Amino acid sequence: MGSRILPSSNNNRVEKLDFKGSFSFFENKLFSLSIMSSVPSNKLGIAGSINALVRNLGMVFGISLATTLLYNRMSHKLGYRVVDYVLGQEQAFIYGMKLVYITAATTCAIGALLTAYRLLTKNVKCEIGTEIFSEE
Question: Which of 9, 21, 71, 85 is 20 to 30 A from 65, comparing alpha carbons?
């Protein structure tokens, strides 16, 4: 994400607002830990790099898909090509965002089902109180 510089009302001071941490909710540390603990120590660098690459590609494709769906549905609703927010046409934006949220929820549900299937078909042992996950 990054930072945004906004003027402050106090003596034209500039305050720096950092939005980078606002999406850390979606980043699961246990997921990264389980990946890193399953890799031999001489391969930790490449495993961490691939993990970061996949996470970044997921963000890029997710944002691209959401934007494409939003403007496609807005264009469908209004009857002409839309490439930006159309003032006075809030119903078109809501119509497009509805499909974006339904698609995101469906994708999350599929991911949760695949994870549940994986966990139920394998014996996964989690040691409480430690940071080590191992498969038997």
Answer: 21
- The helix, strand and coil proportions of the chain, stated in percent and rounded to the nearest 5, come to 65, 10, 25
pTM for this prediction: 0.60
**Which two three-digit tokens encode residue 134?**
């191992």
One-character DSSP codes across 44-96? HHHHHHHHHHHHHHHHHHHHHHHHHHHHHHHHHHHTS---S--TT-HHHHHHH
| Cα torsion angle, 88, 89, 91, 94, sign | negative
pLDDT in tens, the chain (136 residues): 444 444 444 444 444 444 444 445 555 666 677 777 888 888 888 888 888 898 899 889 999 999 999 999 999 999 999 988 889 999 999 999 999 999 999 999 998 999 889 888 876 555 554 555 555 4
Which residue range is the domain that position 76 belongs to? 24-135
Would residue 119 count as lying in a domain? yes
Whether residue 4 is contained in a domain is answered as no
Q: Which helix (H) or strand (E) holds 21?
A: none
Residue 105 lies in a domain: yes
Q: How many domains does the chain have?
A: 1
